């Protein structure tokens, strides 16, 4: 008979995400996630990052705002990006929104026309290595889809391709000539966003549960919300080589 861990490992492999329940404390969440790999430091060097609305980010598409966050993978400027991303819900919004949204980027790549799909493998992008606070790595120059050691790693950021920033002002507008892939990047981002809206799953993570997904395969986003009490704790996990 399969153990609970076996079920979660299989779900991660088959659908790219899984939900762990009954985890009330930080320590319980961390221990459960260590079954999938090693917890690794995030942008500020900590193993835990608090996803909660805070003053000063009202006009940005950022984790500490209540605004919509558009489709992306986490830490595309890291080498490699974290294998798994996990969100532990401590206080869920009561406004009926604040969903975590996921879609399988491999399906998006497969549906593209030949020329667009080839560009994802061949055209390098400067994935800067920091967030709004400027903390992080020096970044990497890689294509959207990188093949290495028999595995494909996907990097994506709608914001970077359309504004040149990961966490831009809500009303940001940039000359295409200044963007990482120019007008083609906007074309690609718009296709990805359309695919995402048609194929995403939306999860309102229950309190004391952890949503885990394959960050090198899945793109994610977040719907806007009003209840500023909403509080999730984020973890990055590096799977064993």
Automatic annotation (TrEMBL):
One of its GO terms (molecular function) is dioxygenase activity. Keywords: Antibiotic biosynthesis, Dioxygenase, Iron, Oxidoreductase. Gene3D superfamilies: Clavaminate synthase-like. Residues 10-236 form the TauD/TfdA-like domain. Pfam families: TauD. Its cofactor is Fe(2+). InterPro entries: AlphaKG_dependent_hydroxylases (IPR050411), TauD-like_sf (IPR042098), TauD/TfdA-like (IPR003819). PANTHER family: GAMMA-BUTYROBETAINE HYDROXYLASE-RELATED (PTHR10696), TAUD_TFDA-LIKE DOMAIN-CONTAINING PROTEIN (PTHR10696:SF56). This is TauD/TfdA family dioxygenase. It comes from Streptomyces kurssanovii.
């Amino acid at each position: 008979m399969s153990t609970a861990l076996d079920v979660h490992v299989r779900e991660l492999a088959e659908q790219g995400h899984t939900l762990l329940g009954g985890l009330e404390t930080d320590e319980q969440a961390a221990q459960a996630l260590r079954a999938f790999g090693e917890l690794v430091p995030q942008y500020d060097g900590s193993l835990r990052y608090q996803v909660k609305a805070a003053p000063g980010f009202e006009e940005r598409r950022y984790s500490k705002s209540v605004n919509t966050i558009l489709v992306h993978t986490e830490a595309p400027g890291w080498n490699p990006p974290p294998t798994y991303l996990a969100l532990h819900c401590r206080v869920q919004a009561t406004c009926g929104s604040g969903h975590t949204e996921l879609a399988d980027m491999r399906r998006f790549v497969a549906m593209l026309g030949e020329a667009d799909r080839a560009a994802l493998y061949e055209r390098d992008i400067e994935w800067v290595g920091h967030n709004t606070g400027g903390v992080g790595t020096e970044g990497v120059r890689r294509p959207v889809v990188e093949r290495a050691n028999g595995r494909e790693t996907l990097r994506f950021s709608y914001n970077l391709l359309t504004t040149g920033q990961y966490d831009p002002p809500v009303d940001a507008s940039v000359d295409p000539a200044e963007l990482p892939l120019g007008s083609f990047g906007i074309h690609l981002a718009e296709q990805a966003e359309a695919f995402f809206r048609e194929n995403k799953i939306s999860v309102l993570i229950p309190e004391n549960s952890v949503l885990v997904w394959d960050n090198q395969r899945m793109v994610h986003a977040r719907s806007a919300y009003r209840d500023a009490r909403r509080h999730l704790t984020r973890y990055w996990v590096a799977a064993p080589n």
